[in-house]
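User: Last request for today: this protein with N-(5'-phosphopyridoxyl)-D-alanine, please.
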Amino acid sequence: MMDSIYLNGAYLPLSEARISPMDRGFLFGDGVYEVIPVYAGKAFRLDEHLKRLQFSLDGIQLDNPLTTEAWQEVCYQLIQQHPGADQNLYLQVTRGEVTTRDHSFRRQDAGTPTVFAMCSPLKAPDKELFEKGVRSVTLDDIRWQYCHLKVISLISNVLLRQQAEDAGGVEALLVRDGWVTEGSASNFFMVQQGVLVTPPKTHQLLPGITRDLILELAEEARIPVREEAVKLETLLRADEVWLTSSVREILPVTQVDDTVIADGKPGPLWHKLTQLFSEFKINLHR
Ligand code: PDD
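Assistant: Here's the final one, the structure of the complex with N-(5'-phosphopyridoxyl)-D-alanine:
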């Protein structure tokens, strides 16, 4: 049987799903989203992702159309189409369909939000990327000033990622006034003399779920951690650099632009945290 997606209360095949061109998500990119990894049939850190969804909704002044229990049920139903598999769960809420295109959203006959959710196979990143590490390309962070919200208007992130790939990297490292903020779809860490460093949560970066988990795991393992802003020139001299996200987990960066990071190989703390991360996943599913 063909997989179903969830759209506004119904489960139906993707090919039958229809959205109005007058949806504010289509017209304005007016909406928010979440990407949640599913390991062995269980949504990973679902509570945290649903909390961040609420945070993003609050940030764009849109009431949550579903209760937490209703979100959990939608996720469960989609995951159950492939029980036990690793999957990628995508949730999206837009401000919905309107009758006239108007920037302001309170004058409109406030429509109902559009709720969309789908599950697709989770492709683990290539083994080679983990073994050799990846190249990252620094670019000017041209995004807006509310990067702490997970909004669907991603044109800057899309252009930046493409620019990084066209320049032979796997991800962009974004720099604002000399400070590294995050990747186009990831957070970053660096290791400096045995200390794990990542920027604190501000409006300039997404509060990554993977980022928070890594900080928790490091603290439990008594690895020293510092949340502080990082200058690009400091990053280039780091002992290790990593990118983190729900789809790529912890990716070692061994080259930034033309600078090779340390000895050009994934470092010891990357190995350690990757091991702690997979143990954490396994223990959750026992
Ligand atoms: N992106 N920063 C940005 C700008 C991101 O888009 C993401 C994730 C992250 C990492 O957050 P988390 O650890 O919660 O996945 C940081 C998702 C995967 C995406 O847009 O597809």
